[in-house]
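User: Run a structure prediction on this.
Assistant: Running it now.
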Amino acid sequence: MIWTAVVGYFAALLLIGLYARRRTTRSPEDYFLANRDFGPLVLFFTLAATNFSAFTFLGFAGKAYTDGLGQYGVMALGTSFMALMFFILGSKIWQQGKKYGYLTPGELVGGRYRSRGLQVLTTGVMSLFTIPYLAVQAIGAGYIIHLLFPSVGAEAGAVVTMAVIAGYVLTGGMRASGWTDVFQGVIMVAAMVAAIAFIGHALGGWSTATRAAFDVQPALFSLPGPHGYFTVKIWLSFFLLWVFCDPMFPQIFSRFYTAKSPRSLQWSMVLYPLLISFFFLLPVLIGVWAHGTGLEVANPDHVLLLMVESFTPAPVFALLMVGALAALMSTADSQLLTLSTMLTCDLAGKNVRYSQAVTVLLALFAVVFVLVGYDPQAGIMGTLVDITFSGLVVLAPAVIATLYWRRATKWGCIASILGGEAVVFLHHLLSFPTYGFLPAIIALGTAALLLVAGSLASSFTGASPAS
């Protein structure tokens, strides 16, 4: 049953990639951006599926298991409000991309100021902090494959999954990535709904499952949680982080270019919070319910998989496993394509064949990270918040100013990015006080202040806003 489900799922993805290839030319705009032709349905699903990752299926439940229901508020509230940025930023990004033929985030930021250096800096920062996020998807794949097939090591599972992803991305480009996201989005929603329904039934109903968890660990149901993590400042930090960081994910940013019209972005803005507020509750509940089952959980990131394995029939377990793979693969394929697009277009020219070679190298790097670079004690959520999200949120002031502030200058953007990233790295080295906020918020505030100060100072010294 499980072998059939996984192999069938992988085969379906490769077939979609082959079909997309028949509809895709080798022009850079068509291969990298599907000719800017995604309508409301495809754009909504590709934005949602791209944002649902191993973090959603494994990290959410794991964090809820350790720190309680506060995880739902932290994730659902900020991420739902982030949808406003689909239109506030996304519509302007779409407009500028269509007008000037931009394919990458770096082209937009550097293009306004006619600055090759700023273009390369933007691409470098996005790539540096997205590659660990890509590697997390390989880690999640290894977890899942090893749990399904104990004779297959996690490393081998990561290799196979990344090979399939690279296969359909290489074949069909953005069109394959977007179409497979629709397929995978439907699977992951159906899988999570089935999982919560069967687990709830096996535990005697939702109220019984909730009561059992409350009896074991009542602190899971109040703030700041059993370990004091979800303070008001942490909630505010995550709210700001999701609103300003998510659009800076290059895989999200690039999808704004693919919209057929602003109407596609408007529909995504409306539908995204509705899906998020429902979908994010399900893994959080399952993570909390695990406390009332007596289940032994050595690694919190495994709790969702263990709950499904223990309390659902084989067909539901198989569907959930495919859904979890769909979540991480829909993110990884977007990251692979976007990273290869940026590293090609911004550094070596708009060459599709070069981009395909870069895709293979990035997939190999992700597997190497699984072998030597991941700290399982940090957990998936800790890894992403500490590394990827902190580094990417620093770009938000420069991007927003580029789109909306006429007095912004190249030097202000450079000061903002370099100064903000310096805060991120210094905190890892020195662990200076952040006064209860996430370090990423200190970095974001620093970047915003430097953007304003640097732009005004360079204007006073004679540099024009577009220099």
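Confidence is low (pLDDT under 50) at residues 376-381.
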